[in-house]
Amino acid sequence: LAKTTQPISMDSYEGQEVNITCSHNNIATNDYITWYQQFPSQGPRFIIQGYKTKVTNEVASLFIPADRKSSTLSLPRVSLSDTAVYYCLVGAYNNAGNMLTFGGGTRLMVKP
Amino acid sequence: ETGVTQSPTHLIKTRGQQVTLRCSSQSGHNTVSWYQQALGQGPQFIFQYYREEENGRGNFPPRFSGLQFPNYSSELNVNALELDDSALYLCASSFKGSYEQYFGPGTRLTVT
What we know:
The structure holds 2 protein chains of 2 kinds. Chain A has strands at about 10-15, 20-25, 30-40, 45-50, 55, 60-65, 70-75, 85-90, 105-110.
């Protein structure tokens, strides 16, 4: 699985757009990029997944440049409840067991 | 649709004892994975089960074992508990091959 690098922490204010960038220089052709969110004392929650270009859902957008060596999770108009740890994961679908390899994640603090 | 549930919520054990943690998968999911999350770190993959057989394993010793039952519920067993086993244990269910995994709230295990 490709190694990922994310900022350790970020601060933002309510109503702002937050962009968290993840580097994955060794991403393989079959790898997808997946983001999870985790609140304290809870299990991670799937946010979004993409392969290339841009993916948008009701929660976030994921921007992936053509070389796929990085990706950016964009959270529009954050609120206090978006304070959490965000994990970027890279890996491929396979039938041998899809283990999720979590790094340290990015701790996002949203302030009033 | 019922989400992933885990029991117990909290557990305190003594070093050398054995523990069994339980997980009920989300309805329709056929794969269950277990993760260990130490305080301040990302979850670490322990193993995954599909069709009642282990389908992938992380870097954990054999004293960590599991079972998956025909109704897709699952158990994690840890023998000869060590102090470093103190962590949040997370269960996640999914369809085989999917990176979109649904996590339970976890069991907080404290070994004294």
